[in-house]
Amino acid sequence: MLVLSMAVAAWLVGVVLYVWPNPDQLAYGSALPYLKVVFDRQANAVRFWVEDFGGLRYDQVELYVNGQLAALGGPGTSATAKCGDEVAALVKYHSGIKKIDGRIICTKPIKKCLT
Q: Which of 25, 36, 67, 101 could cysteine-pair with 21, CB 3.0–4.6 Å?
């Protein structure tokens, strides 16, 4: 009986360790990086950086503009791009690397037409 109860306990611990996800893999703890973009009037360019929807802190980020490395650093690192540029980021978390990319699209404001 003792052997059977020890086997069940060992099986239960194994199941819990297998089923219970890592904190980095939880639905609300998953790495969800995105590019935040702000127009910089002084530089007449767009400044962009990485943030995470879940608030997960990343270790390092590489920011690319048109395939060229534009910035390398930790959280808060930013780079500038022009309208039409392709931007990308490699975000290094403790649990792995995520890649995000996009294109900077600029529009002109609509002017009111008085008739």
A: 25
Q: What is the residue type of 70?
A: A
In a domain, 111, yes or no: no
How far, in Å, CA of 45 to CA of 37, rounded?
10
Q: At 31, which CATH number?
A: 2.60.40
Q: At a CB cut-off of 8 Å and minimum separation 6, what does 103 contact? A: 84, 85, 86, 87
- Contact, 31 vs 58, CB < 8 A? yes
Q: What is the pTM of this model?
A: 0.68
Instruction: Read off the pLDDT of residues 35-91 as tens digits, 9 standing for 90 and up.
Output: 999 988 887 889 999 999 888 889 999 999 999 999 999 999 999 999 899 999 999
